[in-house]
Amino acid sequence: MDDAKKYIYGVINLNNGDNFQPIKAGWGNQELYAISHQDIACVVSDSPGLNLEIMEKEELGRYLVNHQSAIEEVMKTHTIIPIKFGTEVENKLEVGQILERGYSKFKDRLKNFDGKIELDVTAVWSDLNKIIKVMGEEDKEIRDFKEKIARKPPGETLQDRIKIGVMIKTALEKKNEETQNQIIDCLKEKAIDFQKHKIMDDRMILTCAFLLDRDKESEFDEALNELDKRHDGLINFKCVGPLPPYSFTTMEVKKVGFRQLNEAGNLLDLGEEVTADDIKDSYRKKTLDCHPDKDPDDPVLAERFEEITRAYKMLTSFCRGEKCSFKSDDVKDFFLIEAMKI
């Protein structure tokens, strides 16, 4: 139904007589279909009206898997630019507004990521205790300190044992970083780009997404197999994919109204009627005082810079002509479309 809420999975090309056949996937195996604008389309389903903000973590995880499974099903026949998990709009008309406003961004990304895939690689130590033991034997500083502790009465070694724990952790972090760099250096030769993700524990050496041409997948697999042989069971490697380029071009769609626009304008000290040049000039002046290069170690400065930059992007997205008004009567809700930072 056109007036039903729509859940958006991603954006695809629909040109040269291309067609998208509806498929069963996503929320509750609902039908996925395309809503088009010119030669691009959003892949959507009617929204089940879920409130993700109050959903339990386990249930949220199941819906995320459904979301990704649907996108990966579409990927079998189309290049797809993923849209952030949980994105829904009021109706078909709003889907069209998103495609119209983001048309150039979507077309650029569809062109840049055509024929590209993502492979996600994790590497963990098979036996962390064995690695720590070997480090303790090979590292002279740790070995000497252990011998020093062994000569002391047990009741006098608490602080020393704490110190040796810190020394081992530091040595392990160094070894993990060196091993991670070696793995990436080997695999990045077969890839176009890579994106490191957060390490979850000491066993984990690497979790990284690699972007590559689809026809290079077998070469990448060979390089990964060679790494596996080289480490002779010390490291467990896992590769997931091929996937859509989640880590490189997932898009976020936000509905923006007068309140958000007014806050952004106030942040840049703008009046109710401005030109595009006014916005640029104010942004330059504001960022001179809070650019991270002034003090790279100041998190407050970096946060202020990010806040002003977000306001600037919102205002320039709204003000698409020579002049624009931020008066409440002149502001209509619009969609802000940006690439996510993963």
Automatic annotation (TrEMBL):
It is found in: Gas vesicle. SUPFAM superfamilies: Chaperone J-domain. Keywords: Gas vesicle. Its main location: other. Pfam families: DnaJ (PF00226), GvpL_GvpF (PF06386). Residues 263-320 form the J domain. GO terms for cellular component: gas vesicle. The keyword Chloroplast does not apply. GO terms for biological process: gas vesicle organization. Belongs to the gas vesicle GvpF/GvpL family. PANTHER family: PROTEIN GVPL 2. This is Gas vesicle protein. It comes from Candidatus Scalindua rubra.
